[in-house]
């Protein structure tokens, strides 16, 4: 089964779709229509049905957009690490209060947490 590659870029208000294997291009107004337009181009130009080939889309975004996406991913990973650290600190605070003989209900009131959250943290230690 032959594979076709659709190279997709933004060109003004359209998505430009180039299929190098057939040396042809088309366009779509909305991204959701890109795969359909690429498929129709291939099927018309190569006289194929949809089940006779594979289509792979390669979207090329401006460098500034990919830079923002990469930075967002770094920040998301950092936020996950920080969230795990915060949970560990909450757990430590709960454990220390419980070790001092404070009830789970009182620990929740003092720490500004629900009794259920204190109970969860106490069990996760």
UniProtKB/TrEMBL annotation:
It comes from the Bacteria. Keywords: Coiled coil. Residues 65-96 form a coiled coil. This is HicB family toxin-antitoxin system. It comes from Amycolatopsis regifaucium.
């Amino acid at each position: 089964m032959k594979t076709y590659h659709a190279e997709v870029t933004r060109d003004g208000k359209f998505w430009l779709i180039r299929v190098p294997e057939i040396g042809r291009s088309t366009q779509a107004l909305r991204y959701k229509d890109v795969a359909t337009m690429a498929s129709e181009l291939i099927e018309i130009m190569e006289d194929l049905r949809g089940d006779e080939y594979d289509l792979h889309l390669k979207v090329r975004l401006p460098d500034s957009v990919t830079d923002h996406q990469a930075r967002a991913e770094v920040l998301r990973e950092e936020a996950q690490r920080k969230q795990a650290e915060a949970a560990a600190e909450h757990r430590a605070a709960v454990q220390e209060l419980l070790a001092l003989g404070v009830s789970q209900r009182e620990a929740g009131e003092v720490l500004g947490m629900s009794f259920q959250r204190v109970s969860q943290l106490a069990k996760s230690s």
